Amino acid sequence: xxxxxxxxxxxxxxxxxxxxxxxxxxxxxxxxxxxxxxxxxxxxxxxxxxxxxxxxxxxxxxxxxxxxxxxxxxxxxxxxxxxxxxxxxxxxxxxxxxxxxxxxxxxxxxxxxxxxxxxxxx
Length: 122
Known about the structure:
- It contains four helices and two strands.
- It has about 120 residues and is α+β, with helices and mostly antiparallel strands.
- It has a two-stranded antiparallel ribbon.
- β1 (about 40-50) and β2 form a beta hairpin.
- The chain is flat.
């Protein structure tokens, strides 16, 4: 199959995927509107003929870190966990200087490639 045909096939699949997603989101909203949830957070189970429905509700929380720090809580009341994160810009700079430093503590594996196709008219 030629590249042009593969591009068209990809675009059609993406369009179908978007339509399916929109349909799922509409059905999801209608389902949630039809069910009266009692919990803001947690899992609730409902039954209807031929179906068992489990709905998990979540709350998104964000932290005002300076305000949290200002509380100066003792260790037994602290509720924020600091997690190490990779600074990609600095990692790449160190890799250029001494790749062995990075290789000694970082595992690298390829992620799924992203594809974006735009139709170009002449």
